[in-house]
Amino acid sequence: MRQRKASKTPRNRTKFYLAGGLVLVLALAAALTAALRARPAKTPPNVVLIVLDTVRDDCVGAHWQGVPLTPSVDAIAAEGTRFTNAFSAAPWTVPSHATLFTGLHPHRHYADHEHFKLADSFTTLAERLQAHGYATAGVTCNPWLTHTLGFKQGFEQYFEVYADSQPNENDSPKASTQAIEWLRQRAADQRPFFLFINYLDAHLPYTPAPEALNRLPPVPDAKPRTAFSIAEAERFLGRLDQLSPADLQEVRRVYAAEILAQDAQVARVLDYLRGTGQLENTVLIITADHGEQLGEHGFTGHEFSLYEPVLDVPLIVRFPPVFPAGLQTPAPAGLIDILPTILDVAGLPPPSETLPGRSLRKLLAAPAADRPLLAEYARPATLINKYWRSNQPRVDMSAYNTSLKSLRLGGFKYIAADIGWERLFDLSTDAGEERDLSAEMPDRLAQMRAKVAELELGP
Length: 459
Ligand SMILES: [Zn+2]
What we know:
Elements: H1 29-37, E1 46-52, E2 63-64, E3 67-68, H2 71-79, E4 81-83, E5 86-87, H3 93-102, H4 106-109, H5 125-131, E6 135-140, E7 157-160, H6 172-185, E8 193-199, H7 210-213, H8 230-237, H9 245-275, E9 282-287, E10 293-294, E11 300-301, H10 308-311, E12 315-318, E13 327-329, E14 333-334, H11 338-345, H12 360-365, E15 373-377, H13 381-391, E16 404-409, E17 412-417, E18 421-426, H14 442-457
Parallel strand pairs: 1-8, 1-9, 4-13, 5-14, 6-7, 6-8
Antiparallel strand pairs: 2-3, 4-12, 9-12, 10-11, 15-16, 16-17, 17-18
Helix pairs in contact: 6-9
The structure holds zinc ion.
């Protein structure tokens, strides 16, 4: 069986390894005023949702030794609004996409470890748009997002492009070709369309194309790499192998090369939309389902943790009538906001049920710095008891056999494990989540714990 890029294995916000990172552009009052005045379009716009699976926020708009990693996404960001404090509600593919598609937290949609299916009972984003006359198509490189697990709901056409892939093949060229072909075939269709694309290049194993890797200068004093395998990532996580700081930096280089190569594939779809004049009437959202751990806290991949590197995601919205060009806003946003945003901006009725997210259009108008953002992770019992036990039998994973919850609120971050620990970090002074304040700040700890309990009663 080929080595799939599925989520089998398991940042701080400091731009610690990519020179020339983000430049925070302050909001221009005039641009915000324009956003407030703007009304949703009367004719429903097209909607394109691009998920850069496993791409960390600090790699978008970043450079490696002067080489920009995401030039095509950066161009969209310059024409749209970037939410620099955007967070996922879960650290891996299944629950995060289920949140994108339903607008619900994982404790409501329930698609997570031990229960991987998105139930038919939910009304997905695609189903909502389809009900309002949209043509709908999904293109996925991620083998978790299958029709059998419920992710095809609402898509007239759903292309699982990984199905005939070779081992370690990156499927982004096929995904872009398929997406463009679908757009081409529906050219005469008068309906607005919704197109969802999941790109997976940045997922383990990191196997970048040589042309992309060769553009990024290697790390001095590190053993040069062309790849980083799932087995290597697991051995590091399981403390069987050590990597020096230079060697870890070299791992980050192969990861960055995946993002660089993927960006060229994303560009093909964006160029097609622009070239055919469709971009202007399209709500374009580019985000990630989660990030990736590149050695922080001893982790690789994106399982077993709710630290910032796995939750902090890029989020860019391009729709010039509503979202000001070039604006970067620190307003706290979540992937729970994507579904309400799309319905709102498209001028469609809001969901009849209560959802936890807000339209990003309204969030721009009234940013709430103290907005609580919840993330959840179900206990990965089968992953540990079956997969890890057979693949890495020498590693004791019992400390990770727990569900996790986290809350971001007012500059603080709370993480709790159901095996009985809690941690509290002040992100304003400790972006790397290194100094646990739970003993020093019992009142703050209790406040965060209570807020999590409150949010878990809601949607
Ligand atoms: Zn994913």
